[in-house]
Amino acid sequence: MPDPTIPPAPVAPQLSQQEIDGGKTMAILAYIPIALVGLIVSIVCISNKNNAYSLYHSKQALTLYICWVGAAVCCVPLFLICIGLPLLIAVQITALVFCILGIVNASSGKCKPLPLVGRFADKWFGKVQKA
């Protein structure tokens, strides 16, 4: 019996090569964590809804950023018992690895969900579709 708290694995959308090529740049930029570039690009793509490929990766990236901030905030109280700093470093490295995985998927034209956090993108942003 499946666990009701864990959403099912998302199904990757079937997109044309023209749509993938048209949204590839925005999809790659959505995963760049430097100076909030990825966050801004993700929000712009989700609000515009003009390309299904960039929208898919923007939802994945925004879910990653939300989980990243949530995990970092959970590490703050643990600084008092000296486990917060190593845990925060582990969270930051994991999030950067997920950003790199997202960039690799976006640049290769794949709609593959990110590990651990990707399945929550459809649960949180499932109603956001291409206009």
User: Per the principal axes of the C-alpha atoms, what is the gross shape?
Assistant: elongated
What fraction of the residues are assigned to beta strands by DSSP? under 5%
Q: What is the N-to-C succession of helices and strands?
A: HHHHH
Q: How far from one another are the termini? A: 36 Å
Helical run tally = 5
The oligomerization state is single chain
What does the main sheet amount to?
none
Unreliable residue stretches = none
How many strand elements? Answer: 0
Helix percentage? 55-70%
Radius of gyration: 15 Å
How does the SSE layout of this entry go?
Layout: H1 17-29, H2 37-48, H3 52-75, H4 84-107, H5 119-125
Helix pairs in contact: 1-3, 1-4, 2-3, 3-4, 3-5
Could you walk me through the main structural features you see in this protein, from its secondary elements to its overall organization?
With 131 residues, the chain is mainly alpha-helical. The protein has one domain. The protein contains 5 helices and no strands. The longest helix has 24 residues. The relative contact order is 0.19. The model has no long low-confidence stretch (mean pLDDT 85).
